[in-house]
Amino acid sequence: AAAEEEGADEAELSLLECRVCFERYGPGGQRRPRNLPCGHVLCRGCLEALGGPESRRLECPFCRRAFGSAETSDCLPLLQLLELLGPAGASLSLPSALGRSRGAAGPAPTGLGLQLSLGGWGSLVNPTGVAACRRSGRLAVAHDGKKRIHVFGPSGSCLQRFGERGDAGNDIKYPLDVTVTWDGHVVVTDGGDRSVKAFDFEGRGVLAIQEGFSLPWGLDATPESEVLLTDSEAGALYRLMADFQKGKLKKCQMIQSRLISPRGVAVSQTSGAVVVIEHLKAQGPNNGSTRVKIFSAKMDLIGQMDSFGLNLMFPSKIYTTAVAFDKEDHVIVTDVCRQAVISLGKPEEFPVFNPLISHGLSYPIGLTYMANNSLAVLDSGDHSVKIYSST
């Protein structure tokens, strides 16, 4: 046991020290931790020494990857951890600091209980997206069946199936995500022909948009029936403004660029804040990770947290696949590694870590809140939609 404690102490020590000079990181000056593009972290002093006064190209001392000085950034997870430790950090242990941070966030919200399960193999085939109509309570699910969109009523009954698999203009080749606008239109991203397609709830195609997208992926709708859209290959976020009743696109505006493989996106129905999930690539199999970014309604970056920082607070590898806002403006994400749904708190307090659902899920890849504030979770592991409400 003593050996295990010593090993834990050494792990804490290495986490909080620069691996080049072995000095403890600090919130400012030469000891401020800086991220390298490869994912390694150095203190500012060692980074400056590495490049010298004239060098524009640097090389990571650990993996030898070349990079420019402008490509480095503050290591926010470590800075947040140092802030949690505070002036007493030299004597305060890492677990006690993290425990204090969770306590400071207030009590965990009321747990969620499973109320209803829809679909299942044969009804839904490898589902990829779920969305709710906030006015009618209907659920739209995108999947790989013959008819790509499956609409459920509030009671769980199947109301409609549409979106044929095929090559015609309104057919859907490979649906990636779905959203429902406030005026009652189902909008789908089609990875097969890199388009965005809109239907009414009867299944009639009203609009197909191909604006030179590279790989349109995630969708969410604003209260004004505008649609936010991520383009995973282009690294961009778009705002689509359309008259769906008349089948006319008014404007396709890029509102954020330089994102890394953005997929899931959610917009707050109250504040207009926007959350995007980036999928970060790494060398070697199964080494990818994710990053959650929060923007204000004016698209100013409020905060971000990658898997490394999440792991500091939540002791397990975390891989987020979907995001939504609840009615109180908390950011809710799915985690396929823990098979869980987690609340990260409101944008202004991000990140807080409160598990909402920690069992009963296989591979949660989609989230949406329904009109009655029930939470619908898309579980591609058993091809179902599971609806939870407060217990």
UniProtKB/TrEMBL annotation:
Residues of the RING-type domain: 18-64
Keywords: Ligase, Metal-binding, Repeat, Zinc, Zinc-finger
NHL repeat spans: 115-155, 159-202
Signal peptide feature range: none
GO biological process: proteasome-mediated ubiquitin-dependent protein catabolic process; protein polyubiquitination
Pfam families with a match to the protein in the record: zf-RING_5
Keyword Ligase: yes
Organism, scientific name: Nycticryphes semicollaris
Catalytic activities: S-ubiquitinyl-[E2 ubiquitin-conjugating enzyme]-L-cysteine + [acceptor protein]-L-lysine = [E2 ubiquitin-conjugating enzyme]-L-cysteine + N(6)-ubiquitinyl-[acceptor protein]-L-lysine
EC assignment: 2.3.2.27
UniProt entry tagged with the keyword Transcription regulation: no
InterPro entries: 6-blade_b-propeller_TolB-like (IPR011042), NHL_repeat (IPR001258), TRIM-NHL_E3_ligases (IPR050952), Znf_RING (IPR001841), Znf_RING/FYVE/PHD (IPR013083), Znf_RING_CS (IPR017907)
Annotated protein name in UniProt: RING-type E3 ubiquitin transferase
Molecular function as annotated in GO: ligase activity; ubiquitin protein ligase activity; zinc ion binding
